[in-house]
Predict the structure.
Amino acid sequence: MFDALRRDIRTVFERDPALRSRLEALLCYPGVHALAFHRVAHRLWGAGWVATARVLSHFSRFLTGIEIHPAARLGPGLFIDHGMGVVIGETAEVGENVTLYQGVSLAGTSLKREKRHPTLGDNVVVGAGAKVIGAIRIGDNSRIGAGSVVVRDVPPNAVVVGVPGRVTYKDGQRVTEGIDLNQTDLPDPVSRTIEQLVERIRALEADVETLRKNLKEDHS
């Protein structure tokens, strides 16, 4: 338990330049408090003390503004920055060295008692206000942009932005519109249509400006 707490404090030092001391991390970081409460609640849940685990989880939510179901599986090195409004559902699984910012939800989509929350791989970063919904997997080293809504699997080493979330970069390369059989990288037709309309408007504006110049030259 104390080893895990020391790891939490070390993680804060590694990822938050605002931190000045270990005492500050221990007293002033709700993410550290929420993880400490969760470890106890998770053990109680596993031992069959379901009601007690839920009460402890509820108290943690009241104190920190972070809601973590006691059955959720959280890997070492998790950093919940600021934390207010973070929600982690019952069947969510989080890998090692994951970073979650405020307002993130790892949410479910089913009423059945089954795997219905996301699985996050190692070294994943989820931006503020992002929603990751359903029994999907976010691959290792991927980043979810702030405010994105992700409803399908994300490959490793990818960057996802938008509503619904779409892969814009993979393995450091921008994802093109070329057609392949990788179901996670298919182009978003709505987004592409909007981009084409914007390009067309710019072309029309350029044509209008050219016509104006020609009319001025004719009158001069």
